[in-house]
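Onboarding guide, step 5: your first structure request.
Type a short instruction followed by the sequence, for example:

Predict the 3D structure of this protein.
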Amino acid sequence: MNQSDHILELARHRRVLRAADVRQHGWSPQLLLRLTQAGKLQRVARGLYSLPETEITEHQAALEVCQRVPKAVLCLLSALQFHQVGTQMPHEIWIALPEGTQTPVLDYPTLRVARLRGAAYSEGIETVTSHGAPIRVYSVAKTVTDCFKFRNKIGLDVALEALKDAWRTRKITMAEVNHFAKINRVEKVMQPYLEAMVA
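The system replies with structure tokens like these:
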């Protein structure tokens, strides 16, 4: 097998390939361009390639963002959609970045960025590997408390729907919610809703 064959084989195992993935194996990233020109790969976004027959999944955009923005974590509406909680269908990808991180410039997809600091950023991250490429997303309980933290941005109705649906489908426990509510400093805001829910 030559380098091109190896790259195509890697593309079969991963949904999305980056030049860095090719370099990591000691192969020439220039081959990505040649394979694209030959129609054996397709460019899905700047610096990202896949096989032409690769089926686009609902998580394709999130996958691309996590590949291109290493510190990005799916949050808020995108995390709710990922975990199938509530009815939100955002047309943008919501990501969390550490405070002070430069805002990424992507032509596609459109990003909404939430800035978090310390444990509010680092706690509750789950890494889900989809077709060989990781998607970083906050857990359901962390996402629900984030919705209360950012209720002025997304609406209290969205936060309440997320809380009720996650509780009804048993995707969260009271201990998890209390843990992340403390980290996000929304215990007092959430307390009446939690009490009403378990009453």
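Each response can be followed by summary notes, for example: The two ends are 65 Å apart (CA to CA).
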